[in-house]
Design a protein that fits this description.
The protein is an alpha+beta fold. Helix content is about 40%, strand content about 15%. The protein folds into two domains: about 140 residues, no CATH class; about 55 residues, no CATH class. The N terminus is likely disordered.
């Protein structure tokens, strides 16, 4: 059964709904609204759940946010011309969200180009990706597998803050402490009135480090008693 949002625009429970600014917060620090809108305008992400207008925010699905994360990582890791590899990237994004998972592996092709092959033997080439900037092709393959895991679990990790996730099944995907319904924004609001010890006392089953990470994500300080 497909887990994608229905074409009517009504979002099923557990799918998550993301504004562009929230997407950028979750995919920090290098994501920008300009990039997201550019990839929407060039049809790499498909139609949003709701197209924005003056005073009306654009709404994205979990699938689209995951695709944004994938595109950003590939751009960070590989030097390529988007125009040259648009078809290949569309193929990669489609593979990541297929019901049947075909593991993707990067390899070095003829003339230094980069190719991707599935475990069924299907192959595409990224013709403008001659230079790997950081890491190895094996690490990129591992990244694609991790992205697939996030698609399966409907959880987006938040870079540098391992206790936090965006879980599409919890609070429509708002950033929360993993395994809880404690929203990072709620922790930030508490920090305006309570000190560190008082906040920890409210959540005795939540590790103190997770509360600290929630505060860090929201850019607030927890004050001592």
């Amino acid at each position: 059964m497909s887990r994608r949002p229905p074409s009517s625009g009504i979002v099923q429970l557990g799918q998550g709904v993301y504004t562009v600014p929230e997407t950028c917060r979750i995919l920090r620090p290098s994501m920008t609204s300009r990039k997201v809108h550019y990839w929407l305008d060039t049809d790499l992400l498909g139609n949003p759940l709701r197209k924005g207008a003056r005073g009306v925010p654009t709404l994205l699905s979990f699938e689209q946010v995951l695709k944004v994360r994938t595109l950003q990582h590939l751009r960070d890791e590989l030097r390529f011309s988007l125009q040259k590899v648009r078809g290949s990237l569309a193929w990669v994004l489609q593979e990541l969200t297929r019901e049947e998972w075909h593991q993707l592996e990067f390899f070095r092709g003829v003339g230094g180009s980069v190719g991707i092959v599935t475990n069924t033997g299907e192959t595409v080439t990224l013709p403008g990706a001659q230079t790997v900037l950081t890491g190895t092709l094996n690490e990129l393959s591992s990244f694609m597998e991790a992205v697939r895991e996030q698609w399966t679990t409907r959880k987006l990790s938040i870079e540098g803050l391992p206790s936090l996730v965006s879980d599409a099944a919890v609070l429509a995907g708002a950033p929360v402490i993993d395994g809880t319904r404690v929203e990072t924004a709620f922790v930030a609001n508490l920090a305006l009135e309570l000190n560190r010890s008082e906040i920890h006392a409210l959540f005795p089953n939540v590790p103190e480090g997770a509360i600290e990470q929630a505060a860090e994500f929201e850019g607030v300080m927890l004050h001592a008693a």
